[in-house]
Design goal:
mainly alpha; about 220 residues; about 85% helix; single chain
Length: about 220
Amino acid sequence: MKRRYKAMFIVFILLVLMFAAQQGLFEHVTDSNWVAHFIAAQGVYALAVLLMVGAMFTAVGGPRQVIAFVFGFALGGIYGALLSTLAALFGCVLAFYTARLTIRSSLQRRFGHRLQKFEALIIHRTWLKVLMIRLLPVGSNLLTNLFAGATHIPAGGFMFGSVLGYLPQMLIFSFAGAGIGLSDHNQLGISIGLFIISSLIGAYLYRSSLRKQVDELEN
């Protein structure tokens, strides 16, 4: 029965990806003008579709910053940041459970030693450690999600730390997109201010002991 559920989950993911690719949704979701017109024409339905496609886009390794910029262009800084952060969170959940339910054993065979080090790093105070990793300018979002799913790290703490860590960059890029879309220098100024604050936090964390531990995961 467990294998049947795994097979159904894989088939569902593949069907959704195939549908999105056939409809050209992955191309459109990175096109600011297309997204703006789509939302204007379809309203709530468009938001639901964009949320789903944005989640799939980030789940397979697409840059969440692009989604934030495009959604900010179409929706404004705050709403764009919230929708893109939600899409990134759903993408994180999707990648996490794909690893945990389907390819966990394969990842453990391929990355056994690194997975053990990763789990030891964030198994305690998971949400705080994940928050710091998300804020650091290192690593791969996709690999972090897959590694977490392949270990015994609690899902709740991982997701909570991830969404808090995603939010600063999503705000930066969403306000940048909104500033360009509306030709609003104030929104661009907010984006620059948020970038400076985020960079200062990142620089502090870069020099922390956690940075050395994260570096070790790449060796």
